[in-house]
Write a structure and sequence with these properties.
This protein is mainly α and 440 residues long. The protein is built from 22 helices and four strands. A two-stranded antiparallel sheet has the order 1-2. A two-stranded antiparallel ribbon has the order 3-4.
Length: 440
Amino acid sequence: MALITCIECGKQFSDRANACPNCGCPTEVILETLHGQGNSTEAEKIIAEYDILGKSFKVTEKLDKGLRMSKAILDVPSVFAPQIEKDYNAFGSIDKVLELMPDRLADTVDLEADLAVKMLVDAGVYEFDKERFCAKYKNIFDASGVFEPIVDKYLEILDMEEAVNEYHDYIAESRKNAWSGGGFGIGGAIKGHIKAQLLNYGNAFLHSIPDSGRRSRDEDKIRRMKAQLYKDPETLKAVTDGFCRIISSILLAALHEMDQAGVVTAPELDVNRSNSLINNVIHSEDLELEQQINICRQAFEANPLNDTVILVSLYWELDENGEVERFAKDYGLYDTYFAQKQSLIKKKYAEEIRELEDNEHNHSNEAFCNKIDLCGELAAEGLDVSEYVTKAVKGRAWRDVSIEDVYVLTDVLCKYGRFLGEDLVEWSVTRILDALNKKV
């Protein structure tokens, strides 16, 4: 993508847009005119350049913004899933989930829509409220998919085949009529729409089922099955996936709007190709080093934000010049890599980890030193041993400290103090000094 300057109004915008967003002059006409002037595009300033596995990867200011926005979209599940799970667990039953979760989703969607529109207004893409955004991307706000599969199972538990059919007819009719009347109208209508939509699809519909149908069933059996549905991990997953899908779509729509306006450059992420390429590297045992590097580079080019590409490049030590690591740190990918790396090391050295976690055999100086030395060996493999060194030192310094212990603890603090917090080092030194004072 490149920026072009409109020949009619002078506004800059992306050459991917069909027309100037300010005055409507067709892009094709502008490009033909500029080409005749020998000035088809204006070069963007490069703000960073990385030598990724032997090939230059240049980042303009607008691509930088696009990468960061794309990373935020990819992070939606990790950001929102913990709170969704917390809310779900607090409800305590599937009935409460269907009754109360629509409020949670409505509030969240409304807030995210506000934030997305504010971002567009701040960037100069929009000049008015979220009515335009919500009307243009109204399909994003079809939240029926969040609860539809759950209500399906709920009705099956009640053994109401007719209700299941009525439910799907009701959804189809509601979807058809959801946007009649010309959009959202006043601000905040999206929240009301989502809430009403979900209540109709969920709890309100269920309450419309005749009582006689319920009484004819085994209530104890129904309660057990409803409890199973609530505890089923797939139920929580369906709610979480639905939440995250809508939120991600809102952010993706905002990124698309900004890209079309030429404010950012949205990276073209070919997720499937990137995953396929990196899986070939992982599962192929006969690839030469140069082949591994080349394929990893292609996977990076297809999707620079692929966590697995970063992991393989760094963990397999393909990143000889440290440029992949620099990119990962610049774009918020390094923490994920570090966590994945720790998991792989712990799996590889599972027996040694169990030995470190064993607190029953840490009473002698010899056992203590052996554990600390093991920490040093695993640290050399890249494991963060802070937790294990801290436990060992705490356990040792907490007991009465003899003169012999003083020498051992002092040696450990000198060698491994970097793994300990300042408070623990200070406390350990105090224990050592107390022991020395008693001896004197």
